[in-house]
Amino acid sequence: MPAQPVRRRRPALGEPAPEFTARNQFGETVELSALRGARGVVVMFYPYAFSRICGSELAEIHDRWSEFAALGVRLLAISCDSVHTLRAYAEELGGSESGAVEFDLLSDHWPHGQIAKSYDAFNAELGCPTRDTFVLDAELTVRAVVSAPQSDARNIEDLVESLQGL
Description:
Helices cover 27% and strands 24% of the residues. It contains five helices and nine strands.
């Protein structure tokens, strides 16, 4: 994938979200700009696949997917894990070899953490994304940011509420 500029400042509310291209758990390319016009887009950074806290967050989203689908949003969950790791993780979350989760798990593996860094959502000390979520409108403008400490799970209800305002 082509190198993209690294942004060191968190995008503020009302600003355009930094553009990125990444591969999902199936190896398919996902470009943020291609999602313009969707009712909303969630860019959700999480530290590690197969970790306890991240697993509980993503499992709750998977279990509550009908709420997200009713809102018509596209959810992009991003970690620095490889595509192969994300495929295995999707299979575990979805409970099948088809990787049946309804949202994309995107790899920010190489260059390591470049997407997270462009959102100022990278913990250099730990070498992984922070637990930050950016809610974007149809024009890919930042409308809300939901954050949690590395050691705590996000409140998924807060995320759903921020999406209802789109």
